[in-house]
Amino acid sequence: MEGGSLDLPTLNEPQRLWLLLLLPLVWLLALPPRPVRVLLTAHMQQWLLAREALRRNAPRVRPLRLVLLLAALACCIVAHADPRSSATPGAERLVILVDASASMGARGESGATVLEDAAAAIRDRLASVEDSVELRLVAMGEHATVLDGAMARAPGAALRAGGVLPGSLAAVAQGSTDERTAVWTLTDGQPGAGSELPAAGALTLLGARRENWSIASVQWDDGWPAARLPLRVELASHADRPVRAVLRATGAIVAIDPVEVALAPRQRATVELALDRLAAGGELVVRAEVEGDALPLDDAWRAILPPLPSPRIGVLAEEGDAGRSARLAARALAEELGGTAVEDPAPGTPVAFTLVEGGVADLQPGAARIASFGTRAPGGDLPRVAAGIALADWRREDPLLRGIDLSELSVRTALLDALPAGDVLVTGQLPSGTVVPLAVAVRGRAATSVHFAFRLADSNLALLPAFPQVLRRAMLAAHGEGERIRATDPVPVAESDLSALPGAQERPLPSLRTPGRALAAWFLLAALGLLAFRAWVR
Amino acid sequence: MKHHGVQLPDPFPEAFRATLQQLVGGASRIEGDRIDATRARRRQLAQSGVFTGHRPYVGGDDLRRIDWNAYARSGGLFVKLLEEEEPRASAVVLDTSATVLAGSPPRWTGMLRLAAIAGGLSLRHLDALRLVAGGTELRLTGARSLPQLLDRLRRLEPGAAESPRAVVERMLDGGNPGRVHWISHFAEPAALEPALRVLRRHAVRATGVLPLVPDDRDIVQRGWVLVTDPASGRRERVAVDAAMAQEMRRQLTLLARQQDIVFGRSGAQLVRFELPAETDHSLAAWKEAAWTFRR
Q: Helix crossing, A63-80 with A520-536: angle to 10°?
């Protein structure tokens, strides 16, 4: 009832009211049978005695009992039509947009993060929202999380702050709002969100101005397979007071002492750390510790360091001067890794990379971590040998040769038709003018092997300044992309600056549609009451 | 003619009147007619008879009937009463309750015809006739009054209900009715018994005549029947099946037995007369009725 008017119940299945047409039928069936004739008699007493002797009752219509029966039947039919009280107008769907960017991980005075406060606000507000309202919670952060229905009512464990907003909250809120859908945005209003605050729907601003210091950026020089890992860590202050930060690097490195850094208000400071990786690899954590820091998320930088290769470099080369260049190259590479060169390693000997100079060998292109020079596969016809080959070109965009200068490469003799199929790295021109491949890279699933058509002894490749870099890249490529350092991106500075307060006004959640309550049970109860009363009426 | 929704035929069509004339006028064919006629003539001429008592002389009495001996003893004028002094009369009591309209054909038509026969015979052979019906009484004498009797019977309308005892007491207040022929269905024997006892106490010879209609013996209709009592207006829906018909036959038999008991205890006679078909006006059909009223 509202404004003095009575809201009639609505019916979800009004077509079932057709069953009310049964009522006249029931009424007709309840009437006593029409007599076939009227019999005037002087023996009424005898008729009554005869009927009594046969224990037969006179068929009588009791109007009140019939009316009660029809009313009970009508109540059952109305109950079958699923009556409901009038619904409260409002949105039928509610989309909750939660800012789950890194800044939402800031802790307040109570120790709870802003995101936990948001989850509590959602839980409290949705407790009074009817189940009939369709719920969808979209948490936008490093990863977009979508929760529907009951999951959206208690999103606590599913929400995790991190990263930046992948899109504009305002655009999402605007796009989600329609006549039947209400949008509720919960955010800390950080300008680092990358967009303005939503103008559509309800808005709840959480969090407060806080002091924060962060790791703004980390740069490193991956010297893999070398163990040395230089780091360049940039710290940023988002507070108005100077502090001394302690920088700790822990994890898959040789332990180092913490470094203390003085941070001026709203300034940045760079710290260089010389780390030595452990051969087994693992997680490296660099953490900045400052008293009173509000946002732990931007205080740590994490990286996964791959294990270092075995420091053994194998070499298969002829003895004497013919294999000298290969052996020297293996020793130089092993020395760079801090390992040793193993000449003619026996089968099963663990080596990180093998250099093969000349000869005949089953190289397993694309499967073995090798670099071969003028080596041919066993069997088949003997390859042709060409002399007087001039360098034609090399693939400068290939990762193996990017930035490498091979212009001074000179090849005296080379094997023709001995290279396996693969990506051509270097080409040469025969005196006849024919261009032939001089080096190829065979990239397989497990490894990448590099094959040259000439021996080191038949060229000046080993003498070129770029040769050690070529070898190192060949070895790096042989171990694949899995040997790269995988590091997390530092939290953007805009997310870390918690000193700004949003200037927008909060907007309350509009009223949501409350469905009418089911009244079928009441109608059935009324039907039972009518039947009970009918049983009492005689 | 329609009463209570029942279409009643003319009770005295020409064919019945002719039969009635034969029944009433054919004295030679009926045993006892001659004797009765002689007695009637003697009553007019002689002063003989069995002495039954005296009554005070009133102006107009035949001076020959004064008992002079009694005058000598008492000094008052008295007239001798002889048995033959009281006129030989009969009364026909006709039940006019609405229930007589029941039956197919209606019992009422048969009752009127029986009353006409009884009345006609009384007018022809006796001194007087009293017709007691519908709360009124009609006194007739002589055979020439037959048309008047028929006219009165035709104008009777069932519907007036009067208890049998009240009918009897009112009739006795009018003097000795002579022989009483009570024509009715006698559906309520218990109510009739006090009236019969009063008649017996007054030494009135009464004969009950019950005209039978088919409904008195069997219920042939099947299905839902609205049984209606035209007197009280009561209506009852009754499902008539074989069991109900059988039970109804039993109840009617019990009723007949009750009627016999009541009449027997009261020293009266009950005669059940099977009414002929409504259109059957033959002499043979009604001869039995004439015999009934002569006995």
A: 170
The closest alpha carbon to A221, from A275, A271, A283, belongs to A275
Inter-residue contact B94 to B157 (CB < 8 Å): no
pLDDT along chain A (538 residues), means of 10: 61 90 89 82 93 86 88 94 85 90 86 89 87 89 84 81 81 87 89 70 87 91 80 92 93 92 92 89 92 89 86 85 87 83 85 90 87 88 87 92 92 90 93 92 88 92 91 84 78 81 81 84 95 88
Cα–Cα dist A138/A136, whole Å: 6
| B-interface mutation test, from A34, A36, A39, A51, most B Cβ less than 10 A away | A39
Of the candidates A33, A34, A47, which has its C-beta nearest B236's C-beta?
A: A47
Sign of torsion over alpha carbons A116, A119, A123, A125: positive
Cα–Cα separations (whole angstroms), residue A65 to A69, A474, A523, B269: 6, 101, 19, 52
The pTM of this model reads 0.47
Beta strand residue intervals within A206-292, DSSP E: 213-220, 228-237, 243-251, 259-263, 268-276, 282-289
C-alpha to C-alpha distance for A523 and A12, rounded to whole angstroms: 14
What is the per-residue DSSP string for B236-278? EEEEE-HHHHHHHHHHHHHHHHHHHHHHHHTT-EEEEEE---T
- Identity (one letter) of the amino acid at B111? M
State which amino acid sits at residue A262. A
Q: CB-hemisphere CA count at 13 Å for B94? A: 37
Q: How many CB atoms lie within 10 A of CB A360?
A: 12
| Cα–Cα separations (whole angstroms), residue A299 to A163, A259, A288 | 13, 14, 5
Query: Which residues of A, range 31-60, sit inside 8 Å of B by Cβ?
Result: 32-51, 53-54, 56, 58-59
Evaluate whether B20 touches B117 at the Cβ level (below 8 Å).
yes
- Phi-psi group of A416: left, alpha or beta (phi > 0 → left; psi -120 to 50 → alpha; rest → beta): beta
Q: What is the ipTM of this complex?
A: 0.81
Using alpha carbons, select from A258, A206, A261, A204 the residue that is nearest to residue A234: A261
Q: Which residues contact A461 (CB under 8 A, 6 or more apart)?
A: A373, A409, A452, A454, A467, A470
pLDDT band (50, 70, 90) for residue B7: confident
Indicate if the alpha-carbon torsion angle A432, A435, A439, A440 is positive or negative. Answer: negative
Return d(Cα A202, Cα A508) in angstroms, integer.
Answer: 5
**How close A85 comes to chain B (CA, Å)?**
47
Q: Which two tokens stand for residue A458?
A: 């038949």
User: Which of chain B's residues have a Cβ under 8 Å away from the Cβ of A52?
Assistant: none
